[in-house]
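User: what does the whole thing look like in 3D?
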Amino acid sequence: MKAKVPRLIAARLGIALLTLALISVLVFAITGLLPGDAAQIALGQAATPEAVAALRHQFGLDQPASVRYLHWLTQLCHGDFGESLSNNLPVSELIASRLPNSLVLAGLTTLVSVPIALTIGIVSAMFRGTLLDRVLNLLTLSTVAVPEFLIATLAVLLFAVKLRWLPALSYLSDVSSFGALLRIYAMPVMTLCCVIVAQMARMTRAAVLDQLGSSYVEMAILKGASPMRVVWRHVLPNTIGPIANAVALSLSYLFGGVVIVESIFNYPGLASLMVDAVTNRDMALVQGCVMVFCVAYLVLVLCADLCAIVSNPRLRHT
Amino acid sequence: MNSSHTNTSQVAVSMAPDPVPPPPARSLWSRVTDRLSVTGLIGLMIVVIWTFVAFLGPVLAPYHGGAITSTETFGSYSARHWLGTDYIGRDLLSRLLYGTRYTVGLALAATVLASLTGIFFGLLAAVSGRWVDEILSRLFDALISIPSKILALVMIAAFGSSITLLTLVAALAFIPGAFRIARSLAVNLMALEYVQVARARGEGLFYIARVEVLPNMVHPMLADFGLRFVFIVLLLSGLSFLGLGVQPPNADWGSLVRENIGGLSEGAPAVLMPAIAIATLTVGVNLLIDNLRRRSSRNAKGG
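Assistant: Here's the predicted 3D structure for the full assembly of 621 residues, as structure tokens:
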């Protein structure tokens, strides 16, 4: 039975790769095929037709779409994302300079949000139906629906404007000590946490509740185990899989949040790079950023799947 | 009072084929209040008010939306300007009321579009055999693997931002979700006896989809419709906040936050109020859906 796990994982990997290939077609179709001409945009309206034709040839835009797609894909696989039109730097270099910052932000957010979310989820599941559960439900339900920029502006208003504890913008070059680091990351991380804690807590609560309804829990209660013991010794080991799944899926909400948060706090990450690229209509850069985001997203979803497979022997039989 | 097919909380429920018993004759008001708790009623009221404002916003507004009516920029709350003034001295309440059309209207249009397209393809996948199902599912899986905001950014980079594009993008990003739910509902319904009876009668696939399956999908998909609306409101206002959504001189609530972000350091209501307006709308819809879901799952369990 154990031998099935690697095969199942390989199958999931295969599906993920297929999905990635489809995404690359989609992204290329949207950015490379339909709209105006990159050469015309780069040279402006006043360019002579000859100059445009020459640049088109230089970019390879005069070749059929399928050839261009394959060429683009091969380059992508070699880590060559092309050259950014707006500042003539290789896209891979730009992404490499920003990606670590975004990863740090995402990592810190995960570190802070997971324990909080699990606590809220487990507690509200243990006390389901009580006032505490209903208050927590109302809180998480509201936080899920609140736009990130409201939380961010409230945080700035409170901590930067009124109390003057924290800087309103994130200048990473100012980081000289641990305290400075904390001060700079506090608000972006706090905002992102609000976005995903609520989601994660709700999914955790559902996962724990699902187990609380099963017969082995009833058995444990009947034999006289205390509620704490039932949850810690009986329920939690069985919910590790679903909870890990919930955590991975909730983390995918980071992708939406990080776009807004990096812009508000002027944080030099990948998402703000992409927003700038979109504003400048710098297509090569946009394509590069999208592919990086999609790979990250697929990795998360894959992790969620793997957690489910490894923790639930029943899934291995299918 | 509800038959089991009002169970909206689970997708994979088996639907009982028995018809709904005729509802007892009661006033609409008492039927609504019976179903909703306090939070649900609050949610309903918020939704009704904002829908009302979306239609009548320009009539209710004290000033014309684009008119500069004060010399004071980032003014605070006053009798003339209830919500203060914006960065060039326009009445914020009027701007907000005018903007409701975009925030509520665009999101509603996109939600309807996404839901209808999703239901169409979901039904198609469920009724027309394995290969169509497999291809459609893979395609929508790929589409759902691009986070909605990222997808929107790519589309805007390629086509430029316009009202039509925003509606299409928001719909496109949420079609896969609607497709998945519609498909799994339809697949479950297809396995039921009355569908098999219809097949045995020799009915065509189109007839089965339209008469036997579709009517039983509407109710379970309503709560999902509301959730999709919330996510689309958040997506569109997020884009506007980045300056890539509704373009000036028009403004939805997200654009209002962006326009007035300079007033944040002065603590101007112009920054906060539009963001709070979005939050009331989305939280209101969420409260309403949550309430309806709980109520219907409780009914399903009880009877």
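In plain terms: The mean pLDDT of chain B is 80. The radius of gyration of chain B is 22 Å.
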